[in-house]
Amino acid sequence: MDSPWRLELKKLLPHAKFDESLSRYTTFRIGGPADAYVEIRDAGELAALAGSAGSSGVALMFLGWGSNLLVRDGGWRGIAARLRGDFEKLEFLPDGRVAAGAGVRVPQLVAACAENGLGGDESLVGIPGTVGGALVMNAGTRDGEIGALVQEVEIFDREILAPKKLTRGELVFRYRSSNLGGRIILGCVLQLKPGNKVDIMRRVQECQQKRLQTQPIHTYNVGSIFKNPPGLFVAKLIEQAGLKGMVCGGARISPLHANFIENFSGAKASDVLELTRRIQEKIKSAFNVELELEIKVIGEP
Ligand SMILES: Cc1cc2nc3c(=O)[nH]c(=O)nc-3n(C[C@H](O)[C@H](O)[C@H](O)COP(=O)(O)OP(=O)(O)OC[C@H]3O[C@@H](n4cnc5c(N)ncnc54)[C@H](O)[C@@H]3O)c2cc1C
Hints:
The protein is α+β, with helices and mostly antiparallel strands. It folds into three domains: 4-85, Uridine Diphospho-n-acetylenolpyruvylglucosamine Reductase, domain 2 (2-Layer Sandwich); 89-214, 2-Layer Sandwich (Uridine Diphospho-n-acetylenolpyruvylglucosamine Reductase, domain 3); 234-298, Uridine Diphospho-n-acetylenolpyruvylglucosamine Reductase, domain 1. The chain is 28% helix and 27% strand. It contains seven helices and 20 strands. The protein has helices at residues 4-12, 43-56, 106-115, 131-137, 197-214, 234-240, 269-287, and strands spanning 17-21, 33-40, 60-63, 69-71, 76-83, 90-93, 97-101, 118-119, 140-141, 144-145, 150-157, 162-167, 173-174, 177-178, 184-191, 193-194, 247-248, 251-253, 261-263, 296-298. Strands 6-7-15-11-12 form a five-stranded antiparallel beta sheet, covered by helices on one side. A four-stranded mixed beta sheet has the order 1-2-5-3, covered by helices on one side. Strands 17-18-19 form a three-stranded antiparallel beta sheet. Helix 1 packs antiparallel against helix 2 (43-56) and helix 3 packs antiparallel against helix 5. The structure holds flavin-adenine dinucleotide. Flavin-adenine dinucleotide is lined by residues 27, 61-69, 83, 102, 126-130, 132-134, 136-137, 139-141, 176, 183-185, 215, 217, 221-223, 296.
C-alpha cells in the first residue's frame, strides 16, 4: 500500500512518477531509482511540493541537467525534482543584464546572449548543465566562471514557502563551489558585456570547437571527475601515472581526456567509484597529491 506522502504527492502533482530510474536524468546514464521524480512547472507547483515534502519529512532534492551527478546504484530515498516550464525562461533587461531561470540550459543562455550582442559568458557555451546547476557548482573554465557574472540569485525559502532574493554581497563563489548548495535555486540576474554580435558569435564557435577536439562530448560522462589541485592539471597527472584508458566494469578513463570517466557499456555507479578510488590511490602514491571529487555523488550504495 502507498505511504501517506506518496498518496499526497499523487494528489498534488498527478504527473509525478514513482520509483523512477534517475539514470534517465543524468548525462552519465547511471543511477538507481528515486522514490519519486517530478517536474515542477510553476511557482504554485513548487510551493505545493516544498510544503508537502516539508510536512511529511521526505527528502527533497533538485536536479539540473544531471551533468555533474553520479547517482549511486541504490537510488535516492526521497523526491527528486527538476525545474521546467516557467523556470526555463530568459529575459533581457536594460544595461546588458539577463534574468535567467534555473532551468535554462547554459548553452542556450550563451547562444541567446550572443544573438543579442552580449558577451562575457562565451567560454561557458560547452557546459551542458542548467543555470541552477551552474550556480551551485560555480561552473566555468580557465577563461571565466559563472559566479563572476552574477548580480543576484533568486531562491525558494522553504521556511516561508516563498521566493527570496540573495544579493551579490550574500553570495560566495569559489573554484567549483558556492554557498548555494542545499538551497532551491529559481534563477539569477547576470551582468554581461554588450559588444559586437559577430565577434561574440565567433568566440562562442571557437570555444565549442576547442571542446570538440579535447573532450569526449559524444559519450556518457559528467565532465571533469576531479578538481584540479592548485597549479596542477589532474588530466596530466592521470596520464603520467599511465592510467588513461583504464577500465572498471562498464566505466573507463577517457582515452581522449584523462579527467573524464566514460560510461561506455552499461556502467554501474560502483564501477565509476572503484575507478575514482584507484585513481586517487595511484596519484597519491605517485605524486603525493590528494584528489578531490568535483562531481556530486548522491544516493544509496
Ligand atoms: C561534456 C561535459 C563537459 C563539462 N564541462 C564543464 C566545464 O567546462 N566546466 C564546469 O564547471 N563543468 C563542466 N561540466 C560539468 C557540469 O556540466 C557542470 O557542473 C554544470 O554546472 C552542472 O549543471 P547541471 O544542471 O547538470 O547540475 P546537476 O548535475 O543536475 O546538479 C549539480 C548540483 O547542483 C544542484 N542543483 C542543480 N539545479 C539546482 C536547483 N535549481 N536548485 C538547487 N540545486 C540545484 C544539484 O542538486 C547538484 O548538487 C561538464 C559536463 C559534461 C558532461
